[in-house]
Amino acid sequence: MFDNIGRKIQGLAKFCCWSGIAVFAIIGIALIAIGDEATTIIGIVIIAVGSLVSWIGSFFVYGFGRLIETNEIIAANSPNRVPTSVEFTSKAPYNNPAAYAKMPGVAVQQKRCENCGNMISTDICPLCGNVHGETAKKMASLQKLVKDGVISAEDYNQKMGGILK
Ligand SMILES: [Zn+2]
Protein backbone atom coordinates (compact mmCIF):
# COMPACT_ATOMS: atom_id res chain seq x y z
CA MET A 1 0.00 0.00 0.00
CA PHE A 2 2.83 2.40 0.80
CA ASP A 3 5.51 0.79 -1.35
CA ASN A 4 7.01 2.96 -4.08
CA ILE A 5 5.43 6.04 -2.50
CA GLY A 6 7.56 8.36 -4.66
CA ARG A 7 6.05 6.90 -7.84
CA LYS A 8 2.55 7.09 -6.37
CA ILE A 9 2.97 10.80 -5.51
CA GLN A 10 4.13 11.43 -9.08
CA GLY A 11 1.07 9.58 -10.40
CA LEU A 12 -1.16 11.61 -8.08
CA ALA A 13 0.43 14.86 -9.32
CA LYS A 14 -0.29 13.88 -12.94
CA PHE A 15 -3.84 12.85 -12.06
CA CYS A 16 -4.51 16.14 -10.20
CA CYS A 17 -3.01 18.15 -13.07
CA TRP A 18 -5.13 16.49 -15.76
CA SER A 19 -8.32 16.44 -13.69
CA GLY A 20 -7.80 20.14 -12.82
CA ILE A 21 -7.35 20.98 -16.49
CA ALA A 22 -10.48 18.95 -17.30
CA VAL A 23 -12.58 20.71 -14.64
CA PHE A 24 -11.48 24.21 -15.77
CA ALA A 25 -12.07 23.20 -19.40
CA ILE A 26 -15.62 22.03 -18.60
CA ILE A 27 -16.40 25.25 -16.67
CA GLY A 28 -14.86 27.35 -19.46
CA ILE A 29 -16.73 25.53 -22.23
CA ALA A 30 -19.99 25.87 -20.26
CA LEU A 31 -19.43 29.64 -19.98
CA ILE A 32 -18.52 29.93 -23.68
CA ALA A 33 -21.67 27.94 -24.53
CA ILE A 34 -23.85 30.64 -22.92
CA GLY A 35 -22.96 32.65 -26.01
CA ASP A 36 -22.62 36.28 -24.95
CA GLU A 37 -19.34 38.12 -25.25
CA ALA A 38 -18.59 38.56 -21.52
CA THR A 39 -19.04 34.90 -20.53
CA THR A 40 -17.06 33.76 -23.59
CA ILE A 41 -14.08 35.90 -22.53
CA ILE A 42 -14.37 34.70 -18.92
CA GLY A 43 -14.64 31.08 -20.20
CA ILE A 44 -11.46 31.41 -22.28
CA VAL A 45 -9.61 33.04 -19.36
CA ILE A 46 -10.76 30.26 -16.97
CA ILE A 47 -9.56 27.55 -19.39
CA ALA A 48 -6.18 29.26 -19.91
CA VAL A 49 -5.44 30.39 -16.35
CA GLY A 50 -7.02 27.31 -14.68
CA SER A 51 -5.00 24.90 -16.84
CA LEU A 52 -1.82 26.86 -16.16
CA VAL A 53 -2.47 26.87 -12.39
CA SER A 54 -3.20 23.09 -12.40
CA TRP A 55 -0.05 22.43 -14.38
CA ILE A 56 2.27 24.65 -12.30
CA GLY A 57 0.67 23.48 -9.03
CA SER A 58 1.43 19.86 -9.91
CA PHE A 59 5.15 20.68 -10.27
CA PHE A 60 5.60 20.80 -6.52
CA VAL A 61 3.77 17.56 -5.80
CA TYR A 62 5.47 15.82 -8.74
CA GLY A 63 8.87 17.17 -7.68
CA PHE A 64 8.30 15.93 -4.15
CA GLY A 65 7.43 12.44 -5.45
CA ARG A 66 10.48 12.48 -7.71
CA LEU A 67 12.67 13.50 -4.77
CA ILE A 68 11.42 10.58 -2.67
CA GLU A 69 11.87 8.14 -5.57
CA THR A 70 15.44 9.31 -6.25
CA ASN A 71 16.23 9.11 -2.57
CA GLU A 72 14.89 5.53 -2.41
CA ILE A 73 17.07 4.54 -5.37
CA ILE A 74 20.15 6.13 -3.79
CA ALA A 75 19.41 4.46 -0.44
CA ALA A 76 18.84 1.06 -2.10
CA ASN A 77 22.19 1.24 -3.88
CA SER A 78 24.18 2.54 -0.96
CA PRO A 79 26.90 0.13 0.18
CA ASN A 80 26.18 1.13 3.79
CA ARG A 81 22.47 0.43 3.66
CA VAL A 82 20.88 -1.71 6.31
CA PRO A 83 19.41 -4.85 4.71
CA THR A 84 15.66 -5.27 4.89
CA SER A 85 14.43 -7.95 7.26
CA VAL A 86 13.50 -10.20 4.32
CA GLU A 87 16.98 -9.91 2.82
CA PHE A 88 18.55 -10.34 6.19
CA THR A 89 16.84 -13.67 6.83
CA SER A 90 17.27 -14.99 3.29
CA LYS A 91 20.91 -13.95 2.89
CA ALA A 92 22.00 -14.40 6.47
CA PRO A 93 25.07 -16.60 6.76
CA TYR A 94 23.43 -18.77 9.41
CA ASN A 95 21.16 -20.08 6.67
CA ASN A 96 24.34 -21.20 4.91
CA PRO A 97 26.24 -23.24 7.53
CA ALA A 98 29.40 -23.54 5.41
CA ALA A 99 29.68 -19.74 5.01
CA TYR A 100 28.72 -19.19 8.62
CA ALA A 101 31.44 -21.51 9.90
CA LYS A 102 34.04 -19.46 7.97
CA MET A 103 33.04 -16.23 9.72
CA PRO A 104 35.65 -15.08 12.22
CA GLY A 105 34.75 -15.77 15.81
CA VAL A 106 31.91 -18.11 14.98
CA ALA A 107 31.88 -21.57 16.50
CA VAL A 108 29.18 -23.75 15.01
CA GLN A 109 27.70 -25.72 17.83
CA GLN A 110 26.31 -28.83 16.24
CA LYS A 111 25.79 -31.15 19.17
CA ARG A 112 24.51 -31.25 22.68
CA CYS A 113 26.38 -32.45 25.77
CA GLU A 114 24.99 -35.84 26.76
CA ASN A 115 25.61 -35.04 30.40
CA CYS A 116 24.31 -31.49 30.94
CA GLY A 117 22.55 -30.59 27.66
CA ASN A 118 24.84 -27.63 26.93
CA MET A 119 25.38 -26.92 23.20
CA ILE A 120 28.98 -27.80 22.32
CA SER A 121 31.26 -27.44 19.30
CA THR A 122 34.12 -29.56 20.62
CA ASP A 123 34.24 -33.04 22.15
CA ILE A 124 34.74 -31.67 25.64
CA CYS A 125 31.86 -29.81 27.25
CA PRO A 126 33.16 -26.54 28.66
CA LEU A 127 30.33 -26.48 31.20
CA CYS A 128 30.57 -29.89 32.88
CA GLY A 129 33.76 -31.34 31.38
CA ASN A 130 32.01 -34.38 29.96
CA VAL A 131 33.93 -35.90 27.02
CA HIS A 132 32.21 -36.99 23.81
CA GLY A 133 32.84 -38.59 20.43
CA GLU A 134 36.30 -39.58 19.20
CA THR A 135 38.01 -37.94 22.18
CA ALA A 136 35.90 -40.04 24.56
CA LYS A 137 36.84 -43.24 22.63
CA LYS A 138 40.56 -42.41 22.70
CA MET A 139 40.33 -41.55 26.39
CA ALA A 140 38.56 -44.84 27.17
CA SER A 141 41.13 -46.90 25.25
CA LEU A 142 44.02 -45.11 27.02
CA GLN A 143 42.37 -45.67 30.38
CA LYS A 144 42.08 -49.39 29.53
CA LEU A 145 45.81 -49.48 28.69
CA VAL A 146 46.61 -47.93 32.07
CA LYS A 147 44.34 -50.44 33.83
CA ASP A 148 45.98 -53.33 31.94
CA GLY A 149 49.39 -51.99 32.92
CA VAL A 150 50.49 -51.40 29.30
CA ILE A 151 51.18 -47.70 29.85
CA SER A 152 51.87 -45.66 32.97
CA ALA A 153 49.63 -42.96 34.40
CA GLU A 154 52.26 -40.48 33.29
CA ASP A 155 52.09 -41.79 29.70
CA TYR A 156 48.33 -41.50 29.90
CA ASN A 157 48.51 -37.86 30.99
CA GLN A 158 51.01 -37.11 28.24
CA LYS A 159 48.93 -38.79 25.53
CA MET A 160 45.72 -37.17 26.77
CA GLY A 161 47.47 -33.83 26.80
CA GLY A 162 48.33 -34.40 23.12
CA ILE A 163 44.72 -35.29 22.29
CA LEU A 164 43.26 -32.32 24.12
CA LYS A 165 45.68 -29.85 22.57
ZN1 LIG B 1 28.12 -30.79 29.70
Count structural domains: 2
Order of helices and strands: HHHHEEHH
Bound molecules: zinc ion
Low-confidence stretches: none
The profile of the biggest β sheet is: 2 strands, antiparallel
Strand content: under 5%
Structural category is: mainly alpha
What is the total tally of β strands? 2
Mass-distribution shape: rod-shaped
Please work out how many helical segments DSSP would assign.
Answer: 6
CA-to-CA gap between the ends?
A: 59 Å
Please list the strands of the largest sheet in the order they lie side by side: 1-2
| Average pLDDT figure | 85
Question: What is the compact description of this entry?
Answer:
This protein has 165 residues and is mainly alpha-helical. 67% of the residues lie in helices and 2% in strands. The mean pLDDT is 85.
Task: Please explain how this structure is put together.
The protein has 6 helices and 2 strands; from the N terminus they run ααααββαα. It is mostly helical and 165 residues long. A two-stranded antiparallel sheet has the order 1-2. Helix 5 (133-147) packs antiparallel against helix 6. The longest helix is centred in the middle third of the chain and has 41 residues, at 37-77. Bound molecules: zinc ion (ZN).
